[in-house]
Amino acid sequence: MSNTYLTKRNYAIAAGITAFALSSAAKYIVKKSYKKITGNEAPQNPEVKHADLKEVVLFSVGLALVSATVKTIGRKYFAKQWTALDGELPKHLS
């Protein structure tokens, strides 16, 4: 890949897309795992009759932890690969 495409701006765009994709994949996997383990749909709204507030809060916190962890690891790996291609990282990551 040419260095003209490995700019700070393109890094920010590509890292954002990557983070969104990783977060979406993590959410999908966590929801499927929850359903497989409990036999119920993942609670997302406390107004749903089959979920109580405790379930919704615990699921939301668990999902947030998994999603944040996956995004952090993904961004670290992405920055490492970007640098390996001689890409230009934003100042706060250099």
Provide the descriptors you would attach to this structure in a database record.
mainly alpha; 94 residues; single chain
Draw up the topology in text.
Elements: H1 8-38, H2 53-84
Helix pairs in contact: 1-2
- Radius of gyration equals 18 Å
Rounded to the nearest angstrom, the distance between the terminal CA atoms is: 20 Å
Query: By helix and strand content, what is the structural category?
Result: mainly alpha
Apparent shape? elongated
How many helical elements? 2
What does this structure look like?
The chain has two helices and no strands. The protein is mainly alpha-helical and 94 residues long. The protein has one domain (3-93). It starts with 7 loop residues before the first helix and ends in a 10-residue tail after the last helix.
Question: What is this structure, in a nutshell?
Answer:
The protein is 67% helix and 0% strand.
